[in-house]
Amino acid sequence: MVAERVDLPRHAVKSRRRMRRSGGEMVFDGFNLLLLGFAGLLALYPFVYTLSLSFSTASEARRDTLHLYPTQVSTMAYQIVLSSPEIVTGLTNTLVRTVLGTLLTVFLTCIAAYPLAHKELPHRSLILFIILFTMIFSGGIVPGYLLVRSLGMINTVWALILPTALSAFNIIIVKNFFQQLPESLHEAARVEGASEWAILFRIYMPLSRPVLATITLWTAVGHWNQWFDALLYITDDRKQVLQCFLQRIVIENSTQLIDMGKMSQDIASYTPETVKAATVVIIILPMLLLYPFLQRYIVSGVLLGGVKE
Amino acid sequence: MMSSASIQRYVRHRELLFLILPCVAYFLLFHYVPMGGLVVAFKDLIMTQGILHSPWVGLLNFERLFASEDFPRALWNTLVISLLRLAFGFFAPIVLALMLNEVRITWFKRGVQTLTYLPYFFSWVVLGGIFLMLLGGDGPINSLVRSAGHSPISFLGDPTWFIVVLVVTGIWQGTGYAAVIYLAALAGIDGHLYEAASLDGAGRWNQMRHITLPGLVPTIVVLLILSLGGILNAGFDQIYNMYNPIVYTSSDIIDTYVLRRMIDMDYSLATAAGLFKSVVSLVLVIGANWLARRATKGEHSIW
Lengths: 309, 303
What we know:
The complex is a heterodimer. Chain A is an all-alpha fold. Chain A has helices spanning 2-6, 10-54, 58-61, 76-82, 85-116, 124-133, 141-150, 158-161, 168-180, 183-191, 196-207, 209-225, 228-233, 242-250, 256-261, 272-305. Chain A has one domain: MetI-like fold (Orthogonal Bundle), CATH 1.10.3720. Chain A is globular, with a radius of gyration of 27 Å. Chain A starts with a helix and ends with a helix. Chain B is mostly helical. Chain B has a single domain, classed as MetI-like (MetI-like fold). Chain B is built from 16 helices and no strands. Chain B has helices at 4-12, 14-36, 50-53, 60-67, 70-89, 92-101, 106-117, 124-135, 140-147, 159-187, 191-199, 204-229, 236-242, 248-251, 254-263, 267-295. Chains A and B meet through helix 1, helix 2, helix 5, helix 6 and helix 7 of A and helix 1, helix 2, helix 6, helix 7 and helix 8 of B.
């Protein structure tokens, strides 16, 4: 079959394809684009709604619409949120954990991946087993909590960055990348008298920028979004992270924040809902702004690991 | 005693050993010590006496667990929610990826992809907050319901509706991201196959059935194994940030149950529930992998 048709001139094949496309496939393509466009809008709508609500006045917020955009604009919700000391504290704590946690993770992952990338490391397969086994079995949250407590890390930033500092997933990704680098690089540097430490930092890490950038971004996004560890380990409000304040405001329907804002005189320009929406916008804004920049690392992150979690 | 050969080996590779030391220490401390801490499940933990000196109680905590009203319900709810997610959500990213794969207009394809995986980048604190507003009695979804002539639906207060909300918002959040995985697999399919097929007169539908879908099978198998292994994870983050006591009957899952027992400081019971979950998950992931290896004659499995 194939042999018979290979000899067909190129343009003949092309024109046949075009003819087919003009038939039922045109309808299919049209439907496909329509459905996909709808899926895209559906993915976006909750964010549009939140943004619109956050800029609404009280009467606008209570209107029976889809809230695609506000017809009566108010920035009072933002004034309330931004003048709340809790939000400022939360933002600071979140930034601290994100920066410290990410640096720690990238550093520890590199110094763990480097020796594992070398077959001459003593007990290499045992160490790999110790690491990989944690992917399929864990002690669960209670023993983890009891450990963190007995280490005296409650209400410290260490509780938020140490227990998750390394992951089998990250180590394997970086190890595999290091293994792809030519072994001759390593040998040549050893002959020159370079220490393993220097080879890692001066040769391996600079050559691994794409994979390290991907891990850095995924880790930073993870820290920015993480709330469960803070819920367990942070009981002092001065140490609390932004996500947990948001949780209190949004989910537990707390109006504390509004009282804190001390602006309750201007009742027409906000509602508890618009304040919630404004808080949500503030927390997702940094990510939305970074999103176009993060994008190229998203696909590479997926390609690297197949699946996270 | 160590042989002198192995001592020499340690000395020669002391730099590598030094570099791996923090990693080994980390895993022992933060992963294996808690695994040891699982003995709490077989003890009556008395905080003043510590884990080591608390008395052993055998399987008493497990008996309490299964004799209680809440745990069997949580186990059942976990399975129901997970299976509904699998039934309605597993194929969604495959369909999305196949649809995106047929789009020839690059900017449109990239745009839809970007929008659909956007929700994956926000925590369920944020997403839960948004959905509580969207689905509330005065929210826009209920205003649509009202304008269609119905009375408002209690999406968040009705145990059955709440399950629907969980499954649908879960699909909304995860489909775009999972589709990226399938699209990556699609990009790996040899383009010559399509050329040969079209020379052979195969239309796009037949190309999709005989080339694209078989090309996705390895990815589908791996993700299915992982889903089965994770069947006792019914989506803690999402449920914790959206549920309330009214919908516990349908939506209290193992993880939320463990957390509440822990907050009540019933650490032994919480640990027993957690251990039960870890062991069953381990058995499931090993079993699913074994099954996949047998079904595909060793071609597709995760290890």
